[in-house]
Q: What sequence folds into this?
């Protein structure tokens, strides 16, 4: 068989915790296969050898929170054939998008000893708000199996098999009894995108919504049910305001349940 | 045994014309002997067991694995286990799992292909599926299995994986003695007593200090297994008690579906305002389709590995509540929750009859209990009927639409 030309891969970090990049290093058993299949040209987390572009594929972690970020992502886009945003920061703005609901100046004053050194934007925004993104891989953090599937699909020139369904479907395939129905535990699973393999309900916990809103997420109907299960407005507000707080359906639902400091 | 065979020749093994096989009585401990016998014959014995606050179906190795003294309380969107005093082993209704999980599994590898020097070689699916013995199959579930038999085996294209699992299965049915709050098999004509499609059928007789099972063989294989158990002829009192058990369940149905004209009603009301009302509550989460014992839809995904040396084709449960399900060139045919719920409910209760000759609903109530927001198919059908434009006036409906 003819040797496939190994595509060049770059991994970029913007505002993020590095957890999604680490999913790539966490591949362990498959890491050698990854290294054999792609030419890792730029991956600061893994190697100090950083080669210039252009790159066939760029994995982008993190959100845009500074003017420098906003400039740098354009260069990444310009030097990459395919751009894949990985993780809740890159696809929804991440936990740091909580600043979008507040005055960033207040945050800076509260957190930093010398606020005058901080240069930051008022909002944290996903990569797709700045440049064209070819594929978004959800999650906080992403699932390494899904990452391997995307890379394998790119190499084969086929569509990645990333199911666009709710966490409930994964729970049911797995055979987990619904924690909302059987235990009365509030769960975000019905409005959350699948991808994690429905881990939390398998351990008796409600879904935390790490993978962001599912398609057709009916957050209002779910909130109404949470109220029946005894959740108060504040806990609903907080449940929707985590890693994917700025994703539109979640943003709308947390807003509908009052401001953090002034519960409606 | 195939259920359609049993239905085609009812009473074949009966002692006399119009009669069923003579029923026998076994003591509680013989249920353990039954499990041992089946396991010893090479079956993976699957039965009800308590896990994570629900009664699910999983491998059982003895009577100790069964939910002794447990019952369930079910309402729309709510399920709770509770203790019962009598130590009954089957004193509850159906839970979140159905036998579909084993006959039509959530994921199934269809084939694997490996690259070779001059092309590729395909390996078909694993050759020897497990032989299942199902313990505690309810009347509604026997009907559900018969429906999936028609779907997977009745048409031009047989599902070979399903066929292998189905034909190897041994079915121990149980007559229901406790109806759940969301049960409505009596109104669907699918229970609570079992009539066909089993190898053995049990009726649990518990109370007054006794605990025994009335057993009926429904096949040669069942009769052989029964002959190996310590049993006695059924007394008139036991037969009467068994009758009362089923009648008790029939009287205790938590829900009812009016089936008269239901197909025409739904088919003539595609623009009923109730669909909008449902859409406001529906999460499109797909739970109803996952727990439904007759929902059969799957998607097929092809994957390749990193090195490009291997490809696999896998079949997975899918749902008409996802956008991908109806996605074709240009977008999803059913883009809204309204259209997805309407598709599911009208298929289940109406178009299914055109397609397969029976309703797709067996009245088990799972879609009601396990809907996270408690949408009730019997209540929705009643609401549509209450303000229907049809049936009988379908042309008016279409004119209005």
A:
């Amino acid at each position: 068989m003819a040797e496939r030309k190994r595509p060049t891969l770059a991994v970029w970090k913007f505002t993020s915790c590095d957890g999604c990049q680490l999913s790539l290093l966490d591949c362990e058993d498959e890491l050698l296969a990854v290294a054999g299949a792609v030419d890792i040209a730029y991956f600061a987390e893994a190697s100090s050898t950083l080669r210039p572009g252009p790159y066939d594929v760029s994995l982008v972690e993190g959100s845009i929170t500074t003017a420098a970020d906003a400039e740098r992502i354009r260069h990444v886009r310009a030097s990459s054939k395919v751009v894949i945003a990985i993780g809740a920061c890159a696809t929804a703005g991440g936990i740091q998008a909580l600043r979008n609901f507040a005055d960033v100046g207040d945050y800076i004053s509260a957190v930093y000893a010398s606020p005058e050194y901080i240069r930051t934007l008022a909002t944290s925004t996903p990569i797709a708000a700045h440049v064209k993104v070819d594929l978004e891989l959800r999650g906080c953090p992403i699932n390494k199996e899904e990452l391997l599937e995307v890379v394998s699909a790119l190499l084969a020139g086929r569509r990645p098999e990333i199911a666009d369904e709710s966490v409930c479907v994964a729970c049911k395939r797995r055979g987990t009894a619904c924690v909302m129905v059987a235990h009365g535990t509030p769960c975000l699973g019905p409005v959350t995108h699948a991808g994690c393999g429905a881990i939390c309900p398998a351990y008796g916990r409600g879904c935390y919504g790490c993978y962001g809103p599912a398609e057709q997420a009916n957050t209002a109907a779910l909130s109404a049910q949470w109220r029946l299960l005894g959740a108060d407005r504040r806990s609903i507000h907080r449940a929707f305001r985590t890693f994917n707080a700025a994703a539109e359906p979640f943003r709308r639902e947390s807003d509908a349940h009052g401001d953090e400091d002034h519960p409606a | 045994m195939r259920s359609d065979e049993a239905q085609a020749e009812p009473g074949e093994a009966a002692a006399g014309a119009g009669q069923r096989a003579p029923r026998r009585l076994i003591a509680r401990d013989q249920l353990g002997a039954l499990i041992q016998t089946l396991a010893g014959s090479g079956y993976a014995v699957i039965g009800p067991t308590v896990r994570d606050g629900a009664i699910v179906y999983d491998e059982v190795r003895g009577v100790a694995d069964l939910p002794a003294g447990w019952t369930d309380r079910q309402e729309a969107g709510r399920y709770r286990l509770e203790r019962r005093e009598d130590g009954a082993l089957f004193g509850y209704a159906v839970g979140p799992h159905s036998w579909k999980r084993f006959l039509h599994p959530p994921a199934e590898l269809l084939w694997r292909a490996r690259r070779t020097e001059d092309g590729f070689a395909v390996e078909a699916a694993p050759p020897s599926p497990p032989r299942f013995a199902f313990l505690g199959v309810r009347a509604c579930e026997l009907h559900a299995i018969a429906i999936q038999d028609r779907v997977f085996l009745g048409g031009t294209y047989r599902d070979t994986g399903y066929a292998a699992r189905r034909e190897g299965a041994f079915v121990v049915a149980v007559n229901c003695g406790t109806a759940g709050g969301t049960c409505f098999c009596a109104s669907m004509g699918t229970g609570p007593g079992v009539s066909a499609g089993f190898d053995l059928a049990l009726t649990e007789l518990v109370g007054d200090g006794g605990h025994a099972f009335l057993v009926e063989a429904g096949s040669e294989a069942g009769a052989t297994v029964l002959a190996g158990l310590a049993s006695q002829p059924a007394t008139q009192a036991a037969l009467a008690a068994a009758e009362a058990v089923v009648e008790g369940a029939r009287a205790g149905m938590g829900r009812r579906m009016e089936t008269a004209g239901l197909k025409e009603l739904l088919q003539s009301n595609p623009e009923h305002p109730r669909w909008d009302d449902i859409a406001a509550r529906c999460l499109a989460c797909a739970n109803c389709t996952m727990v439904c014992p007759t929902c059969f839809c799957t998607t097929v995904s092809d994957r390749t590995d990193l090195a490009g040396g291997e490809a696999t084709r896998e079949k997975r449960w899918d749902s008409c509540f996802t956008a991908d399900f109806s996605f074709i060139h240009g977008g999803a045919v059913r883009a809204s929750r309204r259209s997805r719920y309407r598709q599911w409910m009208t298929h289940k209760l109406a178009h299914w009859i055109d397609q397969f000759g029976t309703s797709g609903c067996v009245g088990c109530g799972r879609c009601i209990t396990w809907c996270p927001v408690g949408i009730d198919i019997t209540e929705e059908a009643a609401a549509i009927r209450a303000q229907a434009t049809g049936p009988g006036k379908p042309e008016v409906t279409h004119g209005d639409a």
